Amino acid sequence: MSIYKQKFLSKRIILILLFFSFSLMISCSHKISGQAINYEFKNKTEVPDYSNADYWAASPFKNNPSDNVPRGLKDRKKDTLGDVFFIYPTSYTERQKPDGWNAEINDARINEKTDNGSILYQASVFNRYCRVFAPRYRQANLNAFYTKYKDSAEAALDLAYKDVRNAFEFYLKNYNNGRPIIIASHSQGTWMAGRLLKEFFEGKALQKQLVCAYIIGLPVFTNYFTQLKPCIDSTETGCFVSWRTFQRGYVAPYIEKETLKAYVINPLTWTMDTAFAPASLNKGGVLRNFNKVIPGLVNAQIHGNVLWVNKPKFLGSIFLKTKNFHIADYNLFYENIRENVGTRIRAFLAKSDSK
Length: 355
Prior knowledge:
- This protein is globular.
- Helix content is 30%, strand content 13%.
- The chain is α/β, with parallel strands linked by helices.
């Protein structure tokens, strides 16, 4: 072997050793307080501009899926007595996290999934009585709720909330003008809504404008709020409602592990009464095709920290295997929620007129 090859190999070995030493140093520094840090997290530089309608999934100033109602719904009139600020759930679900820990704000595929999913099936519930505002935000990947990389997950959720917070401040400054406000959300959106309610409403002057918060799909534990209370009936205002829906008899493993008590409101009675509410009280749910309202789709009963319902009955329901109806928390009670929004807004306005 020539002296030149020997020198080349020696340098290569040194570089390899240096590389592994450096890798080891980084690996050791990736644990803080016993928690792993995932450096896939990217702090997105493109901040949504909420003066641009493109950064709203739903807005009264543009056509969008929240304007729709199921075919055959008797009451199609619009009477926008209040506003709803709706925070949609996770639609960035890929385990590979192609955008990093947070979705890109202009990811067309994710935005289409959001618009044709939660904006259509959930945000549209409110369009009979409210102007619907739903900001696009750099939502955290679904894995943020399950990962061992707690620091990255927290950073991703914080970034998502920053967008939601900015959107809400823009809404207050430019669109609200003292109108009654409903905060509504599902799943990841409820995580954001909880923070928003604590920061802007609880114990603040804005609480006087709160009609109701429909914060659904995640538990609201009894120690979360200090002043905001759960609604006790269908007409109370300045309060919140929450539930998570499962098939009767099923208790998910993660529910079994919950040690805190969660507030659960039955959307067929709008109380926390644990009595069985028959399907006859269900004024109509909607299915995936969004083509009609189906009365009596499910019954409901509060069981511990969740809401139990029967397996929905519809053409093809024999093939429905899931017992976790998380994705249908709104769909199953579509018309009940829709009517309750009007009931609470009218009650809110009546109280305001009497003062």
